[in-house]
């Protein structure tokens, strides 16, 4: 998969940066939401902890192991949802899911680094890697409510 497309190169750099320097790595103590999920197909695993106060995600951390796509997606997701309301975070998860399925998505919202994962939609086997953290977040927020 070599490409001379500058956007592909930029996206790969963003993904590798999040993989090598994950944001919000760790575990929150005394957290209100604690979810473990894994992708048995390729062995990716995530442990997500979130603090939700008054309908807002005030803090979020993750630990886990897996490929660069799943770990960088988790890092980007934690950055994207921190400080957001539960509704905003769930809406982001829907947008991300649509993006992964190659559907039209609401692009009024600034996705920031998350857009770097757009190319994953062309590799169906990798979509589960990219969505693992998002599914964990959705599951955790639905259980919390």
TrEMBL record:
Coiled coil: none annotated. One of its GO terms (molecular function) is iron-sulfur cluster binding. SUPFAM superfamilies: SufE/NifU. One of its GO terms (biological process) is iron-sulfur cluster assembly. It holds the Pfam family NifU_N. Residues 11-129 form the NIF system FeS cluster assembly NifU N-terminal domain. NCBIfam families: SUF_scaf_2 (TIGR01994). PANTHER family: IRON-SULFUR CLUSTER ASSEMBLY ENZYME NIFU HOMOLOG. Belongs to the NifU family. This is SUF system NifU family Fe-S cluster assembly protein. The lineage of its organism: Bacteria, Bacillati, Bacillota, Bacilli, Bacillales.
């Amino acid at each position: 998969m070599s490409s001379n497309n500058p956007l592909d190169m930029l996206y790969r750099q963003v993904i590798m940066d999040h993989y090598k320097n994950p944001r919000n790595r760790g575990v929150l103590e005394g957290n209100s939401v604690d979810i473990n999920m894994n992708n048995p197909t390729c062995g990716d695993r995530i442990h997500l902890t979130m603090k939700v106060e008054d309908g807002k995600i005030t803090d979020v951390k993750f630990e886990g192991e897996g490929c660069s796509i799943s770990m960088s997606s988790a890092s980007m997701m934690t950055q994207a949802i921190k400080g957001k309301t539960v509704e905003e975070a769930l809406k982001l998860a829907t947008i991300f899911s649509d993006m992964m399925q190659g559907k039209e998505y609401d692009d009024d919202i600034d996705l920031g680094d998350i857009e770097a994962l757009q190319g994953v939609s062309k590799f169906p086997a990798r979509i589960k890697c990219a969505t693992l953290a998002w599914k964990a977040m959705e599951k955790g927020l639905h259980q919390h409510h």
